Amino acid sequence: MFSKKHFITENIPDLTGKVAIVTGGNTGIGYITARELSRKNAHVFIASRNKERGEGAVEKIKKETGNDQVEYLNLDLVNLKNVKKSAENFLSKNLPLHILINNAGIMATPWALTEDGIQDQFGVNHVGHFLFTMTLLSKIEASAPSRIVNVSSTAHNFAPAVGIEFDKINQDAAQSTWQRYGTSKLANILFTESLSKRLEGKEVYVNSIHPGIIIQQKNIFRLQRQRQL
């Protein structure tokens, strides 16, 4: 059952002095999220793989909000070395990190592997974000009160009834494309629950969300190799 309570962007408090990272912030849900955080005076980093689109989103948000504290951060979730480097690049800026929104993802893509040999939906939607988050975690803890939001989906119900079948993740014919997607979203939720317990009492709030049914650009359905995120 979905909540009947409504929270609109006008309810977001003033975020002056707060620093946020939004993965996949160059388009769709991520773009709107980054824009509204910026509108509330946060210092926002848009983390995405395509530099041209990422920097384009940065300039557009600056014009729409009048907030010049918007930056691009290169993040390629199909490459774990890049993920680690991206987090380290942020840490080198010696800024706090109050908000991390793990939003980027791919959905129902044809079978493919990441550059590290991981089934792409699981690799991009979960493993990449896991490494990104854990590399940034000490900074997030030091910036408390802070928040981590993992964008999941009710599509976690598409995962096999037994849960995550780790021995089958990299087997092409073992699962349907929607089972693979559901498995990645289930992993988001389980990671959220585990991290929330680990950080209990530290004023770091970890949540997973279902964003609802969103009408947006078709790029979420494009092949991962087209490098849209």
UniProtKB/TrEMBL annotation:
Cross-referenced Pfam families: adh_short (PF00106)
Family annotation (CDD domains): retinol-DH_like_SDR_c_like
InterPro entries recorded: NAD(P)-bd_dom_sf (IPR036291), SDR_fam (IPR002347)
UniProt key word Oxidoreductase: yes
Domain of life: Eukaryota
Family per similarity comment: Belongs to the short-chain dehydrogenases/reductases (SDR) family.
Protein name: 12224_t:CDS:1
